[in-house]
Amino acid sequence: MRYVFPCGTPTLDFVGTLQERRAPVPIERIGSPGLLDSWFVESGLLDERPGSGQADLRAATELREAIYSLVRACLTGRPLPAGAVATVNRQAAGVPVAMRLGSAGTSCSGRASQALTDLAREAVEIIAGGDAALLRECGHPDCTHVYLDRSRGRRREWCAMRTCGNRVKAASLRARRRR
């Protein structure tokens, strides 16, 4: 497994494929068509690699950045950027992944554009629905994962306790011990 999925939804995990956005050199996790294909399979959107090309990769990064712009607008209380809305709506209007029921359970098949349509539709549901109020950005200074805070008190601070939460708490403990 090459990717992490701490955000609770494929769409927000997809936004997290550009890690450490505020760093001088962010970490790109889907920098090639092959990596994009791997992400689709590991995320569970598709059962088999769709054979993405450069155009699919460009569409994926454009969609990812549009979704991130919409999420940032929700987090900061700003109006939704019109260009990002248009990008997400255009992709959401496409054909979704084909899901089939069989004796072994469900199977999901399709092209990269269909997987992107599913991600765009989920983004529309999050941004336009009640889940927009649950959006949070990880409290770790280097992490820019965005997640839905469904914790009981709505006080979750990190994308994942096992990674960012542990790092922040360990750093805090080290700082207290130094004093």
Task: For this entry, give a set of tags.
single chain, 179 residues, mainly alpha, two-stranded antiparallel sheet, 6 strands, 48% helix
Can you offer a commentary on this structure?
A two-stranded antiparallel sheet has the order 1-2. The chain is mainly alpha-helical and 179 residues long. The protein has helices at residues 10-15, 33-43, 54-76, 82-92, 112-128, 161-178; strands spanning 18-19, 27-28, 98-102, 105-109, 135-137, 146-148. A hairpin with a 7-residue loop joins strand 1 (18-19) and strand 2 (27-28). It has six helices and six strands, in the order H-E-E-H-H-H-E-E-H-E-E-H.
Brief synopsis:
The chain has 179 residues and is mainly alpha-helical. Helix content is 48%, strand content 11%.
Order of helices and strands: HEEHHHEEHEEH
Unreliable parts? none
Beta-strand portion reads 5-15%
Helix content: 40-55%
**Cα radius of gyration in angstroms:** 17 Å
- Number of DSSP helices? 6
**Biggest pleated sheet:** 2 strands, antiparallel
| SS content category | mainly alpha
- Beta strand count: 6
Strand neighbour order, sheet with most strands: 1-2
Mean pLDDT across the residues is 90
Determine the N-to-C terminus distance.
40 Å
User: What global shape is seen?
Assistant: globular
